[in-house]
Amino acid sequence: MDTVKAILFAVLAFLMYFKSEKRFIVLLDVQGDPKELLTMDNIEEILKVQKDMGEHMHQGTPKNAWNYVLLTGKQNADEGVETYENYLKKLKFLKDFKVEAFDNKAQSQALRLLTHMFIYAKGLFANYVTGETIEQIDTAVGEYDKFFTDFSTDFCNEDALANTEKDFIVNLLRYTPPDGSVEFAIYEKAALYNIFPIIGTRIPMSGFPTNYWDRFALVEYSRQGYCHLVCSVLMQEKVENKRRGLEDSITLLTQRANLS
Fold first, then answer.
1. Could you tell me where in the chain the CATH 3.30.70.100 domains are found?
2. Potential cystine with 180: which of 105, 236, 242, 245 (Cβ 3.0-4.6 Å)?
3. Rounded-to-integer distance, Cα 138 and Cα 233, Å
4. Domain with CATH 3.30.70.920 in the chain
């Protein structure tokens, strides 16, 4: 009985360490001086969009010309999206914007920590014990989705791979009803458990949007690691599960903005 109590206390203490938060993700079309973004309050990340990756979902041309993404700090419980939108409307250097609120729940933070621990541990095992690698597509001997081959040429060439800046993929996901989450989970598990440990991926922020979208995730890669994901045979095999699982999505390849 004492053992059970100790375990329950440890679990409770673990969960209490994480406190639920409300934050905003802000998609921007900046037409003025982007350094003006530095004047905004309570901003934790300013990301410059490198490429709209939505084409790989066969959704046609991007709906909006987002060129920056902001992630705010914690918001007051009574701070609504409409209030924040009214603040953004006053900023003359913004041509367009979209604000999405998301809950960074305590359980989600705890799960993300456990996922990182698994990715790190399996990565160490793969690197130092099994020598596991990620099989890559060979565009010279096979027919592959044009998006992936074009991406490989433009973003995975020698010059691009020399870029040491971290890539951050901004993901907003809406599942296909009624059970698209099941299809998407097939793709997600393949990435999380088979590819992420090998390339050393992190998920610095995630949450559950409060309006249209079902999931939000910010995923960090090295350029080489992201190229290994996008150009992997496993990605080719599972991307159809992702397409069937998502009714709508926004996927933006970004890097931290250098505004100094």
1. 104-256
2. 245
3. 9
4. 19-50+57-103
Q: What is the dihedral of CA 12, 102, 49, 151, to 10 degrees?
A: 70
Summarised one tens digit per residue, pLDDT across range 30-86 is: 998 999 999 999 999 999 999 999 888 865 655 678 999 999 999 987 778 999 999
* Residue 26 in tokens: 């802000």
Please provide residue 225's backbone torsions phi and psi, each rounded to the nearest 5 degrees: -65, -45
CA gap 259, 70 in Å, rounded: 13
What are the backbone dihedrals phi and psi of residue 133, each rounded to the nearest 5 degrees, phi first? -130, 175
Domain 104-256 - what CATH class?
A: alpha beta
- Exposed e or buried b per residue across 215-254, where buried means at least 16 C-beta atoms within 10 angstroms of its C-beta: bbbbbbbbbbbbbbbbbbebbbebbebbbebbebbbbbbb
pLDDT in tens, 121-147: 999 999 899 999 999 988 666 667 778
**CATH (residue range 19-50+57-103):** 3.30.70.920
Neighbour-count burial of 58, counting CB atoms closer than 10 A to its CB (0-12 exposed, 13-18 middle, 19+ buried): exposed
Backbone phi, psi, residue 255, to 5°: -135, 160
Q: Give the CA distances from residue 30 to residues 41, 93, 117, in Å, rounded to whole numbers and listed in that order.
A: 17, 6, 37
3-state secondary structure of 200: coil
Residue that the structure tokens 């991926």 belong to? 201
